[in-house]
Amino acid sequence: MPGRIQSIERAAAILRLLASGARGLSLAEVSRSLELPKGTALGILRTLQHVGFVEQDPESGRYRLGGGMLSLGTRYLDGNELRTRALNWADTLASRSGESVRIGTLHKHQVLVVHHVFRPDSSRQTLDVGTLLPLHATALGKALMAFDPLAVPEEVASVETDSPVELTSFTRHTVATMAALEEQLTGIRDSGWGWEAEELVDGEVSIAAPIRDRRGVTVGAIGVRGAVERLRGDDGKPDMEQVSYVRDAARAISRELGVTPY
Amino acid sequence: MSQQYVAAIDQGTTSSRCILFDRDGRIVSVDQREHRQIFPKPGWVEHDAQEIWTNVEAVVQESLQKSDITPDQIAAIGITNQRETTLLWDKETGKPVYNAIVWQDTRTDDIVRELGAEEGQDRFRARCGLPLATYFSGPKIRWLLDNVDGVRERAERGELLFGTMDTWLIWKLTGRHVTDVTNASRTMLMNLATLDWDTEILEAMGIPASLLPEIRSSSEVYGESTGYLAGTPVASALGDQHAALFGQTCFDPGDVKGTYGTGTFLVMNTGTEPVTSNNGLLTTLGYKIGDAPAVYALEGSIAVTGSLVQWLRDNLGLISTAPEIETLARTVEDNGGCYIVPAFSGLFAPHWDSDARGVIAGLTGYVTKGHIARAVLEASAWQTREVVDAMNADSQIDLTTLKVDGGMTADNLLMQILSDVLDAEVVRPMVAETTCLGAAYAAGLAVGYWPDIETLRANWHKAAEWNPKMEPEVRRREYHNWKKAVRRTLDWVEREDGE
Ligand SMILES: Nc1ncnc2c1ncn2[C@@H]1O[C@H](COP(=O)(O)OP(=O)(O)OP(=O)(O)O)[C@@H](O)[C@H]1O
Asked: Which of A240, B233, B335, B490 has a CA 20 to 30 Å removed from the CA of B387?
């Protein structure tokens, strides 16, 4: 029988430790508690962070369990189930916003549209459920990437090293670098919603917010998409009323999935 | 003036709800409360009418308070309700003489058979549009008169009142004893042509006319509410399926709505003349707006649609939630030759065979659980096709669009299959709560909150639409196979002689 691997045992001990502390632990606390040299503890924490099992709070620098850990061993939410549970709320969002509504989930390195509600006017529209959209150029994708550690763009996932990647451009506004994208995602983590202007299609804006399940894991995102004249104000910012409709819908669906409101 | 809303009370089989709508027909607030299902004996189902009233009062108040809306902001109250459920109460004290007997209750089995006597179940069909069946209120009233102590005597002295749930609520709210044509059409006691109580049927069933409410239109001010919403006009009443027809804005002859829940209810607007069905459908009222002529409808119901999905989940364990049926069904391209006819307790329209029992036909070693999931979804679609064919034949109008609502409409694959087998457009409207919306619309029209039916039409928006993609040849072959499978179910139960 091959011997046990010490670093995996240590990683397991770190995960157990993080699972017990609600507010997260500093590097010093982790190394002290487990009597590990700081360098060793840091190496393991960084590796765990890379695979999504650990997160580091950007402000306090403390470590805590990551989303990848929470979704381990739990049944993933079926897209058809998400649509069924979200049906009424998505309708309400479409009628309040006057725009078309989509719900997306992560599928490999893209956004899979699992639900689509037409814009409430008499124009001819076709259902695009089943379509795949790029993560980095849509509000749905950005909202997923901000809160789901497994959501990374195709371009990033396919390179081995940390060498700079170029994100596919759809228009001249599409976010081009990972650094710029990371900055957007940090903003989304702070505000709880994301948007995109003409990054996928010229003249269109989309706004989205994450849907979370009972454990707080992000299982999808809901958002509106429409003409830039309707969704963006003169100040170049998204229409905040629309943002509030999107966030209301995301919260309502999350509640439906069992998140306890705080 | 502050923003005005219309309150719709939906008194359903398992719960009572109140939904507030704004002028665009959007939901502003909802509150809901369940009531007890009382099962005194196998086959008997009762509700406590007092409990229902208490719940209705609570949900009305709560729906306003939740959204900081004050009673003076409510322009009108509309009512939609579980149909046929029967109550008798004392005119003076307001006390029910017995629990409400729910539509599903089968205690009137013997009464129904007795009333049919030589003429059979269609004895009153030409007058009231319905076959003799345990669901309808007339036989339930008869049971109360025959079986509850003192009730016949009190009824004959004129001390008691009858009502379905609409009538009970309107009486509690306004003190008026009225019902609307749609609810009255489910009692078996209303004459379809005169829209008045049919003295011949009343006599045959032994029901004193003094019990009965006045039959009014579905959309007019019946009276002013007392209590929390004091002074607010109570301005509509519609049975649930009729309210859904109205909420789906099926205002033209040939418009059809389908509500897909545990079972499925299809209703077709047939215009201002009643159409007698030669294909086993029920003739009923669509709605009646104030003094305008009544609009009639054909109704076909399917006993098992969503409940077949539940059966796959609970009895076979092939899926763990209902929506997973779609995921499983999408693992295959077609049904693999497999057909499921869920005649769990016989077949309704257009077959009407209570001795039919379900089959899974066409099994081979090739069939997987994916094919079975697909056959389950297809069963809802083909059953719809059979009812729609009957509607087309009876009304001489061909269906072009089916307007759908209910829990199963979340299933995109089912909606596509439905469009494929009907060879018609299937559309889902934006507001799924079409039943409440219909009651709100009828009440709002009566008080001028909405000026006319055209405004309501403009409020209706498509949330999604499916168009047929199936080759006609495939459709023909599959329908042929479905019918073959249906034939395998007929007369399955063999009755002993003399039974
Ligand atoms: N995604 C889905 N695909 C197929 N069937 C579904 C799906 N979601 C729900 N169902 C079925 O739909 C039914 C529930 O729908 P709904 O809530 O409208 O039913 P209901 O109980 O008859 O309605 P109500 O309580 O309002 O009278 C269940 O039978 C369930 O199996």
From this structure: B335
